[in-house]
Each structure stands twice: as structure tokens, then as C-alpha cells.
Amino acid sequence: MQPGKNIAIKVPLHRWEETVAFYHDKVGLSVSRELDNSTGFDFGGMTLWIDRVPHQSQTDVWIELFDDDPTAALSRLGSPRRDELEPLTDVTGHWTSDPAGTVILQRREQMR
Fold first, then answer.
1. In contact, 81 and 95? CB cutoff 8 Å
2. How far apart are CA 62 and CA 57, in angstroms?
3. What share of the chain is helix, strand, coil (3-state, %, to 5)?
4. What is the CA radius of gyration of the chain?
5. pLDDT confidence bin for 111, thresholds 50/70/90
6. Which SUPFAM superfamilies does this one have (predicted)?
7. Element housing 8 (H / E)
8. Helix or strand holding residue 9 (H, E)
9. Which pLDDT score, from 0 to 100, does residue 4 have?
């Protein structure tokens, strides 16, 4: 099995605009496609869709972002440190979240 080409984050209507702005303005992703209720971003060979869902009460998607300096990246994002979520074994990074509550592992990529 191979990963798909899309990741969707279902976002409550009241948090959608600020979540789209987070990925565009703070993470720095490029918009690849815009639909009435969804914005797609280029995400390392995949498309990250931020879907506006009027009856959604919360999100529950975990993703990862790579950076050479995960601590500095966390500061640039202005996101909370949430390292209590799960232990990070053999990983240099931090757990955090976006404005909609999506959990993000901000980490340094492993050398191959």
C-alpha cells in the first residue's frame, strides 16, 4: 500500500478562515486549488485540503512538518508546545497544533 495524494482536514465553519490563513501565512504553503468549501495546498507531493464543514464540531487529524530547527519553527508558527500528547522517541521535534486543533509533529527529518 502507498500513501495517497491528498490529506483532508475537516474544519468547523467558525475556524475555517483562520486555519487556511495559518497554513498559507505562517507555514508558507502555496495554494494549488480553491473550491467553494475547500482550499488545497501543495504539501510535499501531496495536496493538503482544508475543508469547511458547517456541522463539524472538531478536527482530529495528525500530520508532520519537517524543519532543520524544530524549536525555531515552533516559535515562527506561534503555536503552543504540546509535548505532553505523546512521547517522542528517537525524534528531534515537538508536538504542537494549528488554530483548529489539528495535531502537528514539528520535527527534524531523519538522515537516511
1. yes
2. 17
3. 20, 35, 45
4. 14
5. low
6. Glyoxalase/Bleomycin resistance protein/Dihydroxybiphenyl dioxygenase
7. strand 6-12
8. strand 6-12
9. 74
Segments of 26-76 assigned E as strands: 31-35, 38-43, 46-53, 62-66
CA 29 to mean position of chain CA atoms? 10
Query: Which element (helix H / strand E) includes 6?
Result: strand 6-12
For residue 79, give the nearest of 66, 67, 63, 95 by alpha carbon: 95
Neighbour tally for 41: CB within 10 Å: 20
What is this structure's pTM? 0.76
Cell 491528498 found at: 6
- Classify burial at 90, counting beta carbons within 10 Å of its beta carbon; exposed 0-12, middle 13-18, buried 19 or more: exposed
Cell 531523519 -> residue: 110
Q: Which amino acid is at 74?
A: L
Specify burial of residue 14 (Cβ count, 10 A radius: 0-12, 13-18, 19+): exposed
Is 40 in a helix, a strand, or coil?
strand
Q: What is the pLDDT of residue 39?
A: 98
